[in-house]
Structures are given as C-alpha cells and as structure tokens.
Amino acid sequence: MASNGLEAIEIFRRTDPDVVTMDITMPQMDGIECVERLVAIKPDVLILIVSALADKATAVEAMGKGANGFLNKPFSDRQLNEALEELISGS
C-alpha cells in the first residue's frame, strides 16, 4: 500500500509485483502518471484502476497509459475479486 504515486513507484521497484490496484486521485503524482511510469519499469505488469472518477474519458486515458482494467468505487469484495480474476485471466 502506498499513500501517493511517488511512494507507489518506490514500493513497486522494491517488491516487483505482477498485479497492481491503482487509484486515480493521489497526492504528489496522480494514478494515470503513475500507471505510465510503472509500465515503463515493467511492461507486463497488470494494473487495475479503482476510482470514484467514473467518467469514460478518465478510464480511456488510464487504459491508454497501460492500465488493463477499471473498477468504479464503491465496489464490493466480490466485484473486486471478479475484476482481478478477469485481469489475471486476460478476459
């Protein structure tokens, strides 16, 4: 867990995860820029955007930067699990 985009990049470099959940609204660096930087570090990382910003343009921008999925807040545990399963299976 990171409290901002810069910390997310630092943790990402240290832990090398295969899957990341990312909020759009964060201090110091927004989620869209952070997605772009994470993909530059590890192009095959799977990134699920989770955000209350449900507008289509935000989702399209995040996907254009390398995110693989988008889940609107609020969501249930079941919805998160389903979104992550879809992301991992490539559906």
The N- to C-terminal Cα distance equals: 26 Å
The SS-based structural class is alpha/beta
Order of helices and strands, N to C? HEHEHEH
Task: Please describe the biggest sheet, giving its number of strands, its sense, and whether it closes into a barrel.
Answer: 3 strands, parallel
Physical arrangement of strands within the biggest beta sheet: 1-2-3
Number of contiguous helices: 4
Q: What oligomeric state best describes the polypeptide chains here?
A: single chain
| Mean of all residue-level pLDDT scores | 91
Name the poorly predicted regions: none
Q: What characteristic shape results from the CA principal axes?
A: globular
Helix percentage range: 40-55%
Structure, explained:
The protein is 49% helix and 15% strand. It is built from four helices and three strands. The chain has helices at residues 5-15, 31-41, 56-65, 77-89, and strands at 19-22, 46-51, 69-72. It has a three-stranded parallel β-sheet, with helices on both faces. Strand 2, helix 3 (56-65) and strand 3 (69-72) form a beta-alpha-beta unit. Helix 1 (5-15) runs parallel beside helix 2 (31-41). The radius of gyration is 12 Å and the shape is globular. 21% of the residues are buried.
